[in-house]
Amino acid sequence: MPVRKSYVLLGSVVVWIFLARILNGRHTLQIATYENTFFTSFVGERALSIRGNRTESTAFIYFFNPIRGVIDGFVQAIRDLIAVPAPNSVIPIIGWLGVIGIVAFVVFATSQWRTALLSVSLLLGCGVLGMWQFTMDSIALTLAAVLLSLAFGLPLGIWAGLSDRALRVMTPFLDLAQILPTLVYMAPIALVFMIGAASATIATMIYAIPICIRITSHAIRTLNPAPVEASLSMGSTSSQTLRKVQMPMAKQMIVLGINQTVMAALSFVVIAALIGAPGLGNPVISALIIRNVGQGFVAGIAVVFLAILMDRSTSAAAKRQETFIPPSAQDIKRKRLTLLITGILAIVTVFISRTVLWAAIWPKEFMVARQVQEITNDVTAWILENLFIFTNGLKDLISYSILNPLETILSQSPWYLTVSMIICLAVVIGGVRTGILAGVLAMCIVVSGLWFESMLTLTQTIVGTLLTMIFGMALGIWVGRSDRAARSLRPFLDAGQTLPAFVYLVPILGLFGPTRFTAILTGVIYATPVVVKLVSEGIRSVPTTLIEAATAAGSTTRQIIMKVQLPAAKKTIVLATNQGLIYVLAVVVIGGFVGGGGLGYLVIVGNSKPELQGKGLIAGACILLLGVIFDRIMQAGARRSS
Amino acid sequence: MKSLFRPRSAVLSAVIAAALVVSGCSSSVNDSAGEASGDCGSWAIAMHAWNGYTASAQVVAEIAKKELGCSITQTTLDEGPTTYDAMEAGTIDLIIEDWGGGRWQEWSDRGAVIDLGDGGNVGLIGVYVAPWMAEKYPDIVDSKNLGKYADLFKNADSGGKGAWYEGPPGYTTIGEKMVSANKLNFKVIFAGSEAALIDGFTKAEANKTAFIGYAWQPWTLHAKLPNLEKGHVKFPANDWVDAATASGLTDYPSTPLKKLVSKKLNDSNGAFMTLIKNFKWTNDDQNLVALDIEDGATPEAAAQKWIDAHADIVKKWLGK
Q: Do B127 and B111 have their domain in common?
């Protein structure tokens, strides 16, 4: 059966390529960037009237604008506290020394002195890089977004953990949120809540809340049922059981959920700058625009520092919940004493940071930003000059060998041919229902009028996914088979998953120029860690008895990988491909900033040209449609293969 | 078991937090900071991405901070509606150089954005080839002859046609119309940024490779490639203002660049408003500052250098 399936697939691809050759250039639905279709101009007009009504319509006066006001005020309050000069002042309420003192105290109180020391050095690092105020702005925004996300996410997550019905209602939204590229919902949010911290906070929440809900509900659902049943049978009410049994048991997992929420919010700090958020995103984006690799690098390092700081301090707090050894009286005493001392130290630092200028605003003498920038720029210039043949050769190789032929097939063939191909693919892999869904969604793209651009984006996504899978599978198998590899690659995988793609987009742009390849490579770097993680988990979950049996039968390592581990991990690999594709898609569209063209460019141009606003919004919807089509096909495929 | 000492540490933390607040209230560094904010108030300047804009905005910001004691925030924002929206929302007060050619009309009708007139710089957009090409193929700078040279411009990303690099997303561009109206065998590629164009022109000139793209004045690239103007491809004289109605057969218009302010700033009538009203300088002035920035000076230092050298002009702007 699977053999026949792959023959059908191969056959249809051959037919498709053949027909695409014959019908090349017909019915491609290509329109120029400045042209609108009936549909896009309709949406554009609606959007313009929303803009115009923002001061008058009741929905805005009584709903959206108050929300914006409250969130803006909340963020501003935190910023006044640590980041920007407070009202009627030239310094923030707490200067840099005070912030460091407080962070040290809080981290020390919730985890241990080692983490506190790490946090302090990371913060000092951000200051030395000349990024203090940007870092504080980012912390303020992240803090606000995380607090609000938890306020919504934790209760919803607990609810979804307790009630099957709630979970069923939420699941489709959670799934959708997971494949929703961030670039897509920024424009609609900015349309309603305007440019500024409020929009950025809400966009971050949309990204972070689903993660919080998922982990919290999972935490409650995977609890050992025995204590819960015992509690209920002893006559506790369900709310008592929740508070006294389920919550304490799930606590560690929930703290992990908070950690993930923080990381999700943090991965948003850069892209949030596009809708006017203060913080580290600003130097990164401006580096992208003026193509200053050094500046992007400096700001990028600050983002990395911030990510490590947030991750380590929250995950250390989660780990501390693990110890069940009761502290001795002496331990308690010592802890209280050290807490008291560090607390007093924190107060002293705050006090100093409010009385002396050097402790309030990071002194210019303690910055190496300029030097780091110059060194980075020199290195990049050297690479550009001396490795041009390699970088350019690699780019041209990929462009001429895969990218251009595939783009010709997808974008230059008639739309009905490609739609049929997508339906055919969906039916073969996922069954008739998936086929119908894929067909309907593909037709939505056709009707929207942005078919041609969607095909450009699809081409880049497919090429990116192919490359991701090549790297991801190789590394994943390696990590899955060797503990040493797992240990040494772990930090890179973690970093890759939390680093905003914009951070490495700048150097890649420096190396490969404004091309589609730059967009694709950025997507590959973003997606590879998650693929490696999934593939290695799949390989590891293959029962050892199977491998032992194969070894006993005299199989070589190669045979074990090809004949035992990969087939047994097939489902995970399909899911990994799916994740890879979604990740690549989310980042490839950002490539519109750097010459990648396609739907991403339309989203971006829609932000800056009113006459193309409708087109930009529709382009966002098309990105989502593409994501959903392939997500559904692959998910169905994975379900069937198990 | 840990509950043994958790409540206590919680109490302790609370005490310390309270102490923090108290110590926070007790003193402030404001007096020692020297330049206390005067009655100028605090204003937000939109920072658009190109170097020329940075130059103008930074000069204004430095004067406002040093001479008037204003507290100035500078926010990086995309040109166009996003910024106009921010002005309407009250988070941005000034655009020092707007190329939009009236795109703010909707906002201006609602009174959210006020046009303060020209800032003295005149924007001129055009299609340029790398200057060496103009020497080698003298007739290339006539739009009628572009077509026959299209093959020179082929590369990996241009799909068998010539690669034609357009300006960043927010800029007024009609490249696609030019290509189709003149039936040129070019593919329009949106380079995405000013830097990509600078890179494209300078590399092409250095390596004698082909490049055609979007360029404009005032622009620092003209100082780096003094011959750049020779590569300006001539299209028939301009006959449009709104890019939406352009035919693509004629050239870009020259645009006096505007100063736009928020309603709040316009109503303030303070010292900062006077400065903005009087601010006016030439393309050469702007290029001086922009070039320093491009060569690695911080915007602050570059702006200060110009201010120090032009005290008389600054005085005039301040209305003294």
A: no
